[in-house]
Amino acid sequence: MRYETACYTAQIAPEDSHFGAPPDLPLLVSAEHAGRLMASSCRNGTCRTCICLLVSGQVRYSIAWPGLSAEEKAEGFILPCVAYPLSDVVVRLPAQAGTTTLDPLPL
User: Fold this and answer.
1) Cα separation of 39 and 8, whole Å?
2) 11, 12, 42, 55: which could form a disulfide with 47 (CB 3.0–4.6 Å)?
3) Mean pLDDT score, 13-35
4) Strand-pair category, 8-13 with 89-92
5) Which residues, 6 or more positions from 76, have their beta carbon under 8 angstroms from its beta carbon?
6) Mean pLDDT of the chain
7) Are 27 and 55 in contact (CB under 8 A)?
8) Can you tell me the distance from the alpha carbon of 61 to that of 37, in angstroms, rounded to the nearest whole number?
9) Do residues 57 and 90 lie in contact, with contact meaning Cβ atoms separated by under 8 Å?
């Protein structure tokens, strides 16, 4: 029996490009698979290098309390290294951060 897995769409605003974001991969990994390199370091939710604002959509975390304060969570900040999409999402990077576009990884 084959199970179908939903794949959501993710966007790094204000760019217009979108990439697939399966619910079983962290947003950071999905971006990398699409050739979009976001700033990152620890990949376990503690260093905060990948922090960004969730403009729209919903995510769940793979850990109980990622390295965000209650205020940051309330303001909509997420850590894409441990955030898994529950819907289509749009994220905005901090002003000093950026992305690098590379050729997408072959599937």
Assistant:
1) 22
2) 42
3) 93
4) parallel
5) 53, 54, 55
6) 86
7) no
8) 20
9) yes
Parallel/antiparallel/unpaired status of strands 36-38 and 8-13: unpaired
CA dist 64 → 32, 40, 45, 53, 61 (Å): 24, 20, 10, 19, 7
Q: What is the C-alpha end-to-end distance of the chain, expressed in Å?
A: 22
Report the Cα 72 to chain-centroid distance in Å.
16
CA gap 11, 92 in Å, rounded: 9
- CA 72 to each of CA 1, 31, 54, 56, 79: distance values in angstroms, whole numbers, following the listed order: 42, 22, 11, 15, 11
Q: How far is CA 45 from the centre of its chain?
A: 12
pLDDT > 90 in the chain, percent: 65
Tens of pLDDT, residue by residue over 53-95, are 999 999 999 887 778 999 999 999 999 999 999 999 999 998 7
Mean pLDDT of the region 33-41: 91
- Which two structure tokens, joined as six digits, stand for 74? 């309330």
